[in-house]
């Protein structure tokens, strides 16, 4: 289980978030929602020990996350940043293969389990037709799928993803959400920042709504994503309806 206890996060000298406490249990997909600039990315970076909270602590299975050796932490928690441009013009399958780095010693050759994990990740994200191409030949959405496959290849217990579907078309948005959902159904866990309110409500077990420096609400999508609360936080009118697939949440217009 990934857990935060009363953490506070700064961006430079500015206090962005205060008193943030929540947990991500095995089997649970957690959606982190809120307007731009409220600290979602900073919070996710703190979860994977890339940024240190000013106060409070982040725990992995009851142990302070900074106490875990880097390789051990990378094996347990896979991180997908909001944006990333590969430094080298690697072929697609080689970039996906970098996800196995936490499981290998430097310069060690790929083992059968590495090859199998890479093959599964490529199949899950339907990247076979892109293999052999270099990543500088890809569209933004194609590159995003390759980076998602790289995280999948690492086979972490928990995924921490910053807007994983932002650059994707509707087909691949749903595909990626299904991949995360299936991972959690198998006993894994995930926490992701996401702007698509309908997909967050449809796929996530728990929603964390951030605004004004704090956690406005947390709970099931039905509990958290009320029309009045979303309109207050986002300052847009929201069409909200229950459908057989879950909540339908459509921004309709700005509230002047």
Describe this entry's structure for a reader.
The protein is of the alpha/beta class and 256 residues long. It has a single domain, classed as P-loop containing nucleotide triphosphate hydrolases (Rossmann fold). It is built from 9 helices and 12 strands. The chain has helices spanning 40-47, 70-76, 92-97, 112-124, 140-153, 170-185, 197-203, 221-224, 227-234, and strands spanning 2-11, 14-24, 29-33, 55-60, 63-64, 77-80, 158-162, 189-193, 206-211, 214-219, 236-243, 246-254. The strands form 3 sheets. It has a 6-stranded mixed beta sheet, sandwiched between helices. Strand 9 (206-211) and strand 10 (214-219) form a beta hairpin. Helix 4 (112-124) runs antiparallel to helix 5. The radius of gyration is 18 Å and the shape is globular. The termini are far apart. The model has no long low-confidence stretch (mean pLDDT 94).
Can you give keywords for this protein?
30% strand, 32% helix, four-stranded antiparallel β-sheet, globular, six-stranded mixed β-sheet, 256 residues, Rossmann fold, alpha/beta
- Overall tally of domains: 1
Largest sheet: 6 strands, mixed
Which second-level CATH architecture applies?
A: 3-Layer(aba) Sandwich
Please name the CATH topology.
Rossmann fold
* Average pLDDT taken over every residue: 94
Strand content: 25-35%
CATH superfamily: P-loop containing nucleotide triphosphate hydrolases
Describe how the helices and strands are arranged.
Elements: E1 2-11, E2 14-24, E3 29-33, H1 40-47, E4 55-60, E5 63-64, H2 70-76, E6 77-80, H3 92-97, H4 112-124, H5 140-153, E7 158-162, H6 170-185, E8 189-193, H7 197-203, E9 206-211, E10 214-219, H8 221-224, H9 227-234, E11 236-243, E12 246-254
Parallel strand pairs: 3-8, 3-9, 6-7, 7-8
Antiparallel strand pairs: 1-2, 1-4, 4-5, 9-10, 11-12
Helix pairs in contact: 4-5
